[in-house]
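ASSEMBLY PREDICTION REQUEST
Request ID: AP-0331
Submitted by: J.K., bench scientist
Number of chains: three
Total residues: 712
Priority: normal
Notes: Please return the full assembly, not individual chains.
Input sequences:
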Amino acid sequence: MRSVFLAVLHRELLLGWRRRSDLFTLAFFFVMVVSLFPLALGPDAAQLRAMAPGVLWVAALLSVTLSLGRLFANDHADGTLEQLMLSPEPLSWLVLAKILAHWLHAGLPLVLLTPLLALQFGLPGDAIGVLVLSLLIGTPVLSLLGAVAAALALGTRGGGVLVAVLVLPLYVPVLIFGAGAVGAHGSGLGAGPHLKMLAGVLALSSVLAPWASAAALRVVAE
Amino acid sequence: MKFHALLRYATPAHAYTLAGRLLPWLFALGLLLTAAGLYVGFGLAPTDHQQGESYRIIYLHVPAAWLSMVIYLAMALWAVLGWVLNTRLSSMMARALAPTGALFTFLALWTGALWGKPTWGTWWVWDARLTSELILLFLYIGFLALQDAFEDPRQGDRAAAVLALVGVVNVPIIYLSVQWWSTLHQGASISVSSGSSIAAPMLLGLLLCALGLWLHAGAITLLRLRSIIIEREQARQARWLERLRPQRPKGPQGPQEART
Amino acid sequence: MTLQASGLAIAKGHSKLFTDVGFELAPGQALRVQGNNGSGKTSLLRVLCGLAQPLRGEVRWQGRRIDHQRARYQQLLGYLGHAQGLKAELTALESVRFGALVAGRACSQGQALAALQGLGLLSRAHLPVRALSMGQRRRVLLARLTVPPTPALLVLDEPFTALDQASAQAVGRWLEAQVGQGAIVIYTTHQGEGLEVARHQTLDLGRHLGQGPGRAAAQAPVESATPETA
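STATUS: Completed
Returned structure:
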């Protein structure tokens, strides 16, 4: 079972590397969205510092949402999704491999870029640490939940907007716990409870989301 | 085997006639109970010492909020039944419930705004319940959007069932997180009688209105169910529809006239 | 090790493509599915793989329904679909390796190269798929199926399309050899000749066109006695 998981993961990583320009585009989108906020709200340092966790979290959310279209759509179009569905291994396991690859391509780069961007907003070092940790725990959840929405929207004309409409309500708890962690840290309450809740959501979704995505794929791929 | 026999009884044809018979009763009873509830709420319940008369909007707001949650659960249940058991009627019931649920969510939001204005001076307050209702509205919209996005209605039913299942699991988590967020930020809160227990006439009014609105919701849903049944069965060229057609000598030849 | 289909009906949207299709295949038999474009050949093949659910009827492998033994059935199954089935950025070698691995077969570099060689693609093994012609891509897809252990059940949607004569003959010989070793092969083709095997059945979907039940004349081979599900 592990070898098929690794084969799928390997293939996804290979494809991601060969299409690296897509990754750069996504990273640039993240940077650009973050930069829009000071432009819209003014460069007041105190305000930016207060806004920073929320802005970075929302930008990460939007970037991941945008990238969800590519999770299954290409495979569906060229017929390789069928091959995954015909594998003797459980589809949810293979979907998990795809989700992991998706996070490595679309989530992890954002986590790595965050410290740089947070400096632009004047966040102090310890707050940046909490922010990065919250994104590290939270962005995999975004990929997991996003996979369900991407699978559901696969057979439709709705496209990316439909995926966003489906997934954004589900992202609300992640946003609250993630961005809230930094706020709690800043106000002295400690980020622990928030991060623990976030970790709980990660644990739950890593079990449920692959199963739900596989179920959705079987429904939609007929 | 008995279960299968029961399922066979729950065909669209039977449901259509049953719904038709129930409808007038549900509407009448719903109207009656809601009127009674409003009478109790507006006439008999005391004035709130903090909020004056404006609080009375809760007799619509709170039942609407309750119903929006209950309908979501019912909708998800019917959708999942239709998916797992592969029954057409269950999915049609989920489709019928969805707009009703969205309507009540919207009603809860609207009455919440009407309540907020005299109390807090703004049309919107980011309190826990209103924010949760807003997200619930988004979940309903997602459900409706997904259903409609499929060419094959049965596929749309099944995909929406998966979404509803995921939604149901997420609703407690969303609710919890919004509560958390609200208490941490100590936002404005719209509620009645902070601290003191709720007065008996208030509770009676709430219950009557809740029951009345629930029956009303049932009536609207059954009405919609009937039209969904007709629409879907026509597309399948089901034969039982011909029993419904009034006996006219001549009429325009629709697609359902073609002999199967 | 028999494959039984009974009472299959498939609909597309609101119209029935065909109704009451059934057959039974033992090891070492081949079935050719015929019908005009749009008669549902591809849909039938997908139902036989378990990728789609029929409106009515069921498919059984060794007496059990395929949806009750998905992992086991899919381990034995090799499917060639209509779609490209390949990633443009992967090389032919990588495509064969990953394809075989995903299908649950161990596949070393050497085995993948041998598979490509069997279909005359050794010289192109390290080229990306996007640099291959249509016929060469179909052969890469087929190469994936030749990696041992070869499937006991092969379901092929137009395996000869886009192949030149030499390749088509080579593929035909390989399939006949598989049948000779006890595999079951189900295929569709627009090309005139099919496989030349001793036990060969033909299923003509044109005789099973449905607008309602009861129009089917059982021109199809042996129908199994398994009951229909609603």
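REVIEWER COMMENTS: Chain C touches chain A through 30 residues (CB under 8 Å).
SIGN-OFF: pending second reviewer
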